[in-house]
Design a protein that fits this description.
transferase (chains A, B); 2 domains; seven-stranded parallel sheet; RNA_MeTrfase_TrmJ/LasT (chains A, B); Alpha/beta knot; homodimer; 10% strand; 11 helices; alpha/beta
């Protein structure tokens, strides 16, 4: 499978070219093409801002004309902040990723075209393409950074590749302690709370126990975590034990001095 | 509807703070919080790189501690490139956007937490959060720029604004306590465990604290439940009601009778 080629038309800042290369690498893309980069090519600042994602830059191809840069591609989508007066279909990056995956699945070479920082794409550039990709930006602030636009589209491509079903809580459930282990924790806690006089008045004990169990159950603890919390209960209760012991000792000690006729 | 707060923990480069503000504006977010920005705040370079998206920067709030920066939020998700050994649920930005929308739909204040450029988030920071967001980057090049990570998450939030499938997490969020309430519970528990000599050996205290916080955080307690568990901790460590009161009364009563030279 050959991911989309990224084509930057008249990019101005080497930093953005490097940032685009970096995010291409993040999402498994590697073919970069530059049409008339303003400050020439190569430029060190591009490599500096790629943070080690050198290969898209090392192998970048430079073109004088956009027509030449897209010549070998079968499907090219133009990304613009503002859909033009055109009869091309307009997609979000998510929809565009589907379109691109369909084409790649049929062994077509595909590309995503981005305009320069200042002016974006001209209508003549867009007319070479097969569809328009528009990021759904807020009307109040439409100016999207070039590398960010590349990022969002590469991300959507990648999301289409990985397509991993990932149940939200799968991770937790995988290692969740069996119920008998969990109940052991509940019962230890409740026994200690009985001793501490926590369940008051007694007729409310069942509903209080229920509430504690529901909250702790939602934590979906592993066996290791249950063991840790059992240790917590023991540690806290021993602390209480010490307080009580001290008081009891004192009481015993003083008990002998209790005056006649005392309580 | 109040979009997520973006929290940058120990950001290093003002350019990235500005780029984050710009992309927040692109996708309709505006609340930015900075925890210990490396080079201080404000910094002109942030405004320069925001390209006119000044309002998130103008109104950015700066904090010394992450705990303070998230205190008023009810749901905070930590974005990390690499899911840690933790028992928090792990989501893609898309899944995370669903979770955030559910919470916001129930009038909860929510946030997305990002670590600094070099080191990302520490495990202790993540332990304050309720879930982990991981961008599905290519294994061969995982280093995602900070502002790009902000961009992808803000984009997914925006994509979810109009058209959104229901997430499974709703019931937990419904009445979830704000983080400052939750942190109050953690700190009470940890103080009591300190007294009880639970954290042993001392060098393991940070990881033990983290594990306890993660497990309790997953329970997604309501304020009422937090209050109940604070009562549980008090009862376990000091006893409650008759048991202790009776002994204490007795001790006080007898205290006046303490003999000279007594203990």
């Amino acid at each position: 499978m050959r991911p989309p080629v990224i084509i930057l038309n008249e990019p101005q800042l080497a930093e953005n070219i490097g940032a685009a290369a970096r995010v291409m690498a993040n999402f498994g893309l590697s073919e970069l093409r530059l049409v008339r980069p303003r400050d020439g090519w190569p430029q060190d600042r591009a490599w500096a801002s790629a943070s080690g994602a050198n290969w898209p830059l090392d192998e970048a191809r430079v073109f004088d004309r956009l027509e030449a840069a897209v010549a070998d591609l079968t499907l090219v989508l133009a990304t613009t902040a503002r859909p033009r007066e055109t009869q091309l279909p307009v997609w979000t990056p998510r929809e565009a990723a589907d379109v691109l995956h369909d084409a790649v699945g049929q062994d077509k070479a595909v590309g995503l075209l981005f305009g320069g920082e200042r002016a974006g794409l001209e209508t003549a550039d867009i007319a070479l393409c097969h569809g328009i990709v528009t990021v759904p930006v807020d009307e109040r602030f439409r100016s999207l950074n070039l590398a960010q636009a590349v990022a969002l589209n590469c991300y959507e491509w990648r999301m289409g590749v990985s397509d991993r079903p990932r149940a939200a809580f799968a991770h937790n459930i995988a290692e969740r302690a069996p119920l008998e282990v969990q109940v052991g924790l509940y019962e230890q806690l409740e026994a200690e709370l009985d001793k501490a006089g926590f369940f008051h008045p007694p007729e409310k004990r069942p509903s209080m126990v229920r509430n504690l169990r529901v909250a702790l159950g939602r934590a979906a603890m592993t066996e290791q975590e249950v063991a840790t919390f059992r240790g917590v209960i023991t540690a806290l209760s021993r602390g209480r034990g010490r307080v009580l012991e001290k008081l009891a000792r004192k009481a015993r000690e003083l008990d002998g001095l209790k005056p006649e006729g005392g309580e």
